[in-house]
Structures are given as structure tokens and as C-alpha cells.
Design brief:
Layout (H helix, E strand, L loop, with lengths): L7 E8 L4 H15 L8 E5 L2 E5 L3 H22 L38 E16 L4 E18 L5 H28 L17 E7 L22 H8 L1 H4 L4
Parallel strand pairs: 1-5
Antiparallel strand pairs: 2-3, 4-5, 4-6
Helix pairs in contact: 1-2, 1-3
Pfam families: ATG101
Family: Belongs to the ATG101 family.
Keywords: Autophagy
Length: 251
């Protein structure tokens, strides 16, 4: 049996508090659309001017809505907490425009004690049922992950109309790039997909986990394969070094 680690694809989402729910939901539905192997009549929804496909299955829609709501609650809690800036963010790097960076960090008194933006992540795991074997008998089924997609979410908290316009443009660009990256990865990496033995229902169970920035919601050690490098990978180090505004060309 092939014991290679399941590939994990890393995507990014960037939005303001008003649009983060729709952006993350749209990305998750795109992933399900790309990895849903049952007969389905896809529909589309508009997210930041993009028509994104989604799978109109009640079970998927309910789970996506529940997990996205949990992520939004986590992000809201983080946004309203006072943050102590790490040493590498003191001075020129800054945390202006929420998490976007650029400029001198505002004091808690000037922001009402709020922490500006927030970061989190949400992961979809696709599973395969395998018979559990022992030396003396077959003992039920194990659900083994064969692929996962982690969406790293950053929320900016713009304070002026000019900042809101810049964040909106950056959000649209990031969403477009993320969707294109997801389509490219899904089409380029198919050899690891387990055999499909049924045609009248979705052959693979799935899970959605909500985790904090830098954590692995599934409980194990999180690794980013080489395939995830490019537009989205390495974002954490770049963001820490330069701030989101600088890295995304907002300023």
C-alpha cells in the first residue's frame, strides 16, 4: 500500500471584514467543485466580481457555512484583541492598515484598543476509506487523507476610503490568482487520486478544519510540498518581513 504523505496545497485569501465570509466560502466551494466526482449540475455565485462555481449539495453547503462562520468568529475575536508587535515589526515595517503593514504601528489608544486585522486558516481534507488490517482479521475501515487544501486567510481593517479602495483591489486580485492557482493545481495533480468505485454518490468523505495562523488543524505536523510554492507559498515569511501592503503592492 502506498504510504506517501498526502499532498497539501496552500492557497491565500485576503479581504476586509465585510467580504471575508464570501471570499473564503467562494474558495472552498471552488475546491469542492474541482474535487467532487459525482454527477452534479454546478451553479455560480458572484464574489468580488468573479463568477465562481459551487456544488449545490446541501451537506457541503451546510458544512462550509458552519466552518466559515467559525473562522469569521475567530478572526473577529483576533481583530478586537490588543496585539503586542514582535520585534521585527517595530520601526519601519509597521502594521498600518490592519495587518497590511506600511507605516508606523498605531497605538492602542488611537485604535480604541483594537488589534486591526486578523489571520487564520481553514483546511479541507479529502479522505479515502481503507480496510483496517491486523495479523488475524479485517477490523473495519480507516479514513485516510489523500489530499488537503489549506486556505490562509488575512483580514485587513482599512480606516479610510482610500485604504478601502486599495484593499478591495488587492482582494479582487488575490481571489482571481487563488482561483486560477486552485484550478491549475487540481488539473496538474491527479495521479494520487484513489480509484473511484461508485458513480451515484460522492466516493470520498471530506472534513473541514478551522485552525489558527501557523497551526495544523488536523493535529499532525503540517508540511507544504514543493508543488505549493509560487504565488501563495512562502507568504508567511514575506508578510512577516515586509507587511501585506508592501508585498501586495498596495503602497
Amino acid at each position: 500500500m502506498d504510504q506517501r504523505a498526502a499532498p497539501e496545497f496552500i492557497l491565500e485569501a485576503f479581504a476586509d471584514p465585510n467580504s471575508v465570509r464570501d471570499v473564503v466560502r467562494g474558495i472552498l466551494h471552488t475546491i469542492f467543485f474541482l474535487r467532487f466526482f459525482s454527477t452534479v449540475h454546478p451553479q455560480t455565485r458572484d464574489v468580488l466580481g468573479l463568477e465562481l462555481a459551487y456544488v449545490p449539495e446541501a451537506e457541503i453547503e451546510t458544512l462550509v457555512d458552519q466552518r466559515v462562520a467559525a473562522l469569521v468568529r475567530q478572526l473577529e475575536a483576533e481583530r478586537h484583541q490588543p496585539h503586542t508587535l514582535p520585534d521585527h515589526n517595530r520601526g519601519g515595517g509597521g502594521m498600518g492598515l490592519g495587518l497590511l503593514g506600511g507605516g508606523t504601528p498605531p497605538s492602542n489608544s488611537s485604535t480604541g484598543g483594537g488589534g486591526g486585522g486578523g489571520r487564520g486558516q481553514i483546511t479541507i481534507q479529502f479522505l479515502e476509506k481503507r480496510r483496517r488490517k491486523t495479523w488475524y482479521a479485517m477490523r473495519g475501515d480507516d479514513e485516510v487523507c489523500w489530499e488537503s487544501w489549506t486556505v490562509k486567510v488575512t483580514v485587513a481593517d482599512p480606516r479610510t476610503e482610500g485604504e478601502r479602495a486599495k484593499v478591495r483591489r488587492a482582494s479582487e486580485t488575490t481571489l482571481h490568482n487563488t482561483i486560477m492557482k486552485a484550478v491549475t493545481l487540481a488539473n496538474a495533480h491527479k495521479d494520487h487520486i484513489p480509484p473511484i468505485t461508485v458513480s451515484d454518490s460522492n466516493p470520498f468523505p471530506y472534513q473541514i478544519h478551522v485552525g489558527g495562523s501557523g497551526s495544523n488543524p488536523s493535529g499532525g505536523q503540517q508540511k507544504e510540498p514543493a508543488v505549493a510554492a509560487g504565488a501563495g507559498a512562502g507568504a508567511g515569511a514575506a508578510a512577516a518581513a515586509t507587511g501585506w501592503a508592501t508585498r501586495m503592492g498596495i503602497y
